[in-house]
């Protein structure tokens, strides 16, 4: 099996860039043997590796990534590890009741696993922060979304509280928002610092190679030979934690949708600018409309000082690649969203703008399970990879290690990703739906 496509990450994410330079990458430059090979060092790969170290103590575990840790989507997301239903394709994030309860349970299991990983790795305070999030509305329609969401959460016995216009202004400094809904179960991370810290901690127990893409996989009697540009790994079992790139390995063809989303971060705000803005110096906002704008106000050394991060827009890109021209176009859209929220900071430049891959399925399920003899997939996180990637990685390790649990049994009962309609109809349909939903989001964008 030849790997047809390797990951390309366009634009530099501030989360990674503001951190100290990494030491030079350890690249695989020989032929080695391992009991386990995990491919991909994002949330899924790190969780799978950690779970294997717990279950298969003493085994030789190798983790490889095509890039540097923190450079890929795991280090370029907005850092919301959300516990509640968050279906990007629905109108209000949530689906049916029992399915929601199950999803909350699964998400919280993942967040706890991530929290324990952060504690074991002794990550600096602020990298993993179980502080909750605020869903914020800017329009009457958005406000109605929040009210419906609140009713739904109350019916599920979930804790939440509202913020009025004045309280939203006291929090954020802007009068853009008319209401907010606080949900306390979300953990907020500095994503690049989190994945770097977890990978560094795991490196004392396993062999971790970066800038080491898997370029071919050959099957022999009892093992696989995974080739990399300068070496190879002979291994009994493989966990594919490469999200949408699982398709580049030949699996889940015609079942996965490849979408990009984008973020920009301001340069450091000056004292004067912070005074003009007002509000608190840390807050984390998810838009009331799933197509709206996520905003984070960040502060401290780990974040490169006082800044604001905005994330919005989704594009359908089955090639799994975007170019700099796309970023230029998106940067304009970020500017508009930023200016609408922070007219007092209109002159503040964006220092970073980047895009990153998401992988979705039509029926909002993961691409999970044993996909060939002793090859396991922990992919397709449906836009919530900090949480769902962690869960699928953890459970893929349990499946591969033959460790039975009710959770795994439940997870395996999910349907496989639905087939997509053939091209060019799929792209035409997906692009029109995204455009329409973004238009519908209106001012929330
Ligand atoms: C701007 C933005 C904002 C986002 N915000 C959020 C958010 O707030 N909350 C949330 O939950 N999610 C968010 N996401 C989505 C989240 O980042 C992804 O869902 C998550 O990173 C997926 O985790 P993963 O481990 O499955 O895959 P990835 O993080 O994509 O990791 C897969 C790894 O596999 C490696 N790889 C691929 N092919 C090969 C190969 N052949 N050989 C070796 N390595 C390979 C890649 O280099 C990559 O490092 C956001 C994404 C973006 C872009």
Walk me through what this model shows.
By secondary structure, the protein is α+β, with helices and mostly antiparallel strands. The chain has one domain: FAD/NAD(P)-binding domain, CATH 3.50.50. Helix content is 32%, strand content 24%. It is built from 11 helices and 19 strands. It has helices spanning 14-17, 43-55, 97-120, 140-155, 165-172, 191-202, 271-277, 324-341, 385-400, 406-412, 425-441; strands at residues 31-39, 61-64, 80-81, 128-129, 133-137, 161-163, 179-183, 187-189, 207-209, 216-219, 224-228, 231-240, 257-266, 283-287, 294-298, 307-316, 350-360, 367-372, 375-379. Strands 1, 2, 9, 10, 11, 12, 18 and 19 form an 8-stranded mixed sheet that branches. Strands 6-7-5-14-15-16-13-17 form an 8-stranded mixed sheet. Strand 15 and strand 16 (307-316) form a beta hairpin. Helix 3 crosses helix 9 (385-400). The chain is globular, with a radius of gyration of 21 Å. The chain starts with 13 loop residues before the first helix and ends with a helix. Residues 3, 6-7, 39-45, 64-67, 72-74, 76-80, 213-214, 241-243, 245, 261-263, 311, 356-358, 381, 383-387, 389 line the site of flavin-adenine dinucleotide.
């Amino acid at each position: 099996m030849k790997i047809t496509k390797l990951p390309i990450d366009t634009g530099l994410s501030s989360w990674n860039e503001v951190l100290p330079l990494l030491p030079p990458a350890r690249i695989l430059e020989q032929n080695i043997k391992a009991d386990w090979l995990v491919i991909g060092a994002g949330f899924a790969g790190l969780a799978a590796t950690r779970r294997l170290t717990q279950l298969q103590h003493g085994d030789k575990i190798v983790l490889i990534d095509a890039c540097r840790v923190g450079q890929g989507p795991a280090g370029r997301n907005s850092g919301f590890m959300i516990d509640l239903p968050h279906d990007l394709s629905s109108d209000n994030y949530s689906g049916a009741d029992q399915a929601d309860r199950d999803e909350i349970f699964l998400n919280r299991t993942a967040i706890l696993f991530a929290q324990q990983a952060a504690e074991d790795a002794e990550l600096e305070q602020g990298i993993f922060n179980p502080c909750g999030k605020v869903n914020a509305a800017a329009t009457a329609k958005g406000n109605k979304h929040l009210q419906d969401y609140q009713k739904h959460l109350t019916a599920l016995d979930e804790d939440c509280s509202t913020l009025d216009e004045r309280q939203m202004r006291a929090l954020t400094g802007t009068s853009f928002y008319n209401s907010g809904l606080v949900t306390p179960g979300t953990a907020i991370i500095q994503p690049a610092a989190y994945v770097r810290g977890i990978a560094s901690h795991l490196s004392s127990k396993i062999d971790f190679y970066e800038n080491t893409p898997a370029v071919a996989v050959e099957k022999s009697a009892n093992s696989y030979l995974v080739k990399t540009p300068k070496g190879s790994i002979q291994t009994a079992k493989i966990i594919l934690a490469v999200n949408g790139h699982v398709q580049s390995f030949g699996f889940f063809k015609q079942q996965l949708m490849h979408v990009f989303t984008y973020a920009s971060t301001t340069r450091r705000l000056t004292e004067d600018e912070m005074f003009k803005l007002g509000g608190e110096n840390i807050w984390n906002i998810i838009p009331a409309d799933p197509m709206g704008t996520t905003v984070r106000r960040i502060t401290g050394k780990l974040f490169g000082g006082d800044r604001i991060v905005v994330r919005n827009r989704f594009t359908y890109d089955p090639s799994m690649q975007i170019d700099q021209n796309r970023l230029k176009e998106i940067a304009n859209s970020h500017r508009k969203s930023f200016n609408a929220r922070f007219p007092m900071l209109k002159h503040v430049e964006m220092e970073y703008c980047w895009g990153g891959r998401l992988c979705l399925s039509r029926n909002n399920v993961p691409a999970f399970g044993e996909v060939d003899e002793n090859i396991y997939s922990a992919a397709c996180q449906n836009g919530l990879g900090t949480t769902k990637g962690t869960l699928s990685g953890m459970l893929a390790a349990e499946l591969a290690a033959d460790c039975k649990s009710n959770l795994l049994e439940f997870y395996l009962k999910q349907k496989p990703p639905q087939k997509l309609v053939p091209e060019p109809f799929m792209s035409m349909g997906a692009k029109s739906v995204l455009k329409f939903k973004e238009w519908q989001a209106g001012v929330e964008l």
